[in-house]
Amino acid sequence: MNAAVAASPVFDVTPDNFEADVLQGSLKTPVLVDFWATWCGPCKSLGPLLEKLTTEYNGAFRLAKVDVDKNQELAGMFGIRSIPTVMLVKDGQIVDGFAGALPEGPLREFLSRHVQPVDRDVDEAPEDIAPESPEQAIHRLQQELATDPSRPELKLDLAVALAQAGHASAAEIELNALPANLATDSRVVRLRSQLDLVRSLEGQPSLKILQQRVHANPQDWEAHDLLGVRLLLGNDPTAGLEHWLLLLEKARDWNEGQAKKRLLAAFNTLDDAELVGRYRRRMASLLF
Question: What range defines the domain where residue 245 resides?
Answer without folding.
Answer: 207-287
